[in-house]
Design brief:
It is built from 10 helices and 13 strands. By secondary structure, the chain is of the alpha/beta class. It starts with 15 loop residues before the first strand and ends in a 17-residue tail after the last helix. It has a 9-stranded mixed beta sheet, sandwiched between helices. It has a 4-stranded mixed beta sheet with strand order 3-2-6-7.
Length: 320
């Protein structure tokens, strides 16, 4: 059993700071063969780092979102929902003149989403935090990053600066590869940047394809070991229908959990949020990730049982 700290209100620890996008997922809540069959959309809270922050908060960890959305109706809609979740919004900005990103999504018969994204996207993050990133990192207890804020030069500089500041201050840094090749004109640049985030990372999370691209290895365990050889203390590889594994300073493997799948949007975020909450509430003891892996896989499975990343998850997610 991993000893846990007093809880998210402990003033010296600071929240888990999730850096990146917040957006509206407008989802057609029935399987369709293509966009021409769509007849309606339903709004959901979205964005990978935002999903992770919400799941971590539901697990009892203190979580903050660092980023920006437009100072418009959708931006206020998102802020209200984050407030309901108890997310720390000190570093979340409604940016005048920006358009809140809206991602239209259709779900096919295999429960896989296809997105059409409108809005300037990640640029709002740099706009919101350009003069505040030092203060944001200083106030946090740990930092969570993804590759999505490495695409453009301004967001990349901000992300790398946040990582540098966190490591210099001895704060844990966690990384989700979250590679979206369509966002990049140069995949090798993307892979090189993700590799550069691995040294000193407390946790790096990847899916099977990301692990293969990053390391050139087809075997997930060997790929996870290779990520640890790059300097990560823990590597987590999600295996889809085969569950997930952890390698590095702790090792575990958890089988998949049966689910009535309707939408796989955000399943990896659910898994990551549980693992980060477990680590954050156990002073980042590596064994906490191994212990929480079955619960994380279960949360990922449950998240697929409703449309959107968060709707199927309970308001309170118990940690082991």
């Amino acid at each position: 059993m991993i000893a846990r700290r007093q809880g998210p209100d402990e003033p010296s620890s600071g929240p888990l700071l999730c850096l990146g996008e917040t957006l509206v997922d407008l989802i057609c809540e029935r399987p369709v063969a293509g966009w021409d069959e769509v007849d309606s959309f339903v709004p959901h809270l979205g964005g990978g780092p935002t999903n992770v922050a919400v799941v971590a908060a539901r697990c009892g960890a203190a979580a903050a979102v660092a980023g920006g959305v437009g100072d418009d109706a959708w931006g206020r809609w998102l802020r209200e929902r984050l407030e309901r979740e108890g997310i720390n919004l000190r570093w979340f900005v409604l940016v005048p003149g920006e358009e809140t990103v809206v991602a239209f999504a259709v779900i096919d018969e295999q429960a896989v989403p296809d997105f059409l994204i409108y809005g300037r996207g990640i640029g709002a993050v740099a706009e919101a935090l350009a003069d505040r990133i030092e203060d944001a990192v200083a106030a946090c207890g740990a930092l969570y990053l993804t590759s999505n804020t490495l695409v453009g030069p301004r967001e990349r500089a901000l992300t790398l600066r946040a990582r540098e500041l966190a490591l210099a201050a001895g704060k844990p840094v966690a990384v989700d590869a979250n590679l979206r090749p369509a966002r990049w004109t140069d995949l090798e640049l993307a892979l090189g940047l993700v590799r550069s985030l691995c040294p000193e990372a407390r946790l790096v999370k990847l899916n099977v394809e990301e692990a293969r691209l990053l390391t050139g290895l087809d075997d997930p365990e060997a790929a996870a070991d290779a990520v640890c050889a790059l300097g990560a203390r823990l590597a987590v590889v999600t295996l889809g229908a085969n569950g997930a594994l952890v390698r590095g300073e702790a090792s575990a493997r958890a089988p998949a959990v049966a689910a009535r799948v309707v939408d796989t949007t955000g399943a990896g975020d659910a898994l990551g949020g549980v693992l980060l909450a477990a680590l954050a509430t156990a002073d980042w003891e590596p064994a906490a990730a191994a212990q929480a892996l079955p619960a994380a896989v279960a949360a990922a499975a449950r998240s697929t049982e409703a449309f959107g990343a968060l709707e199927a998850l309970p308001a309170r997610i118990p940690l082991p």
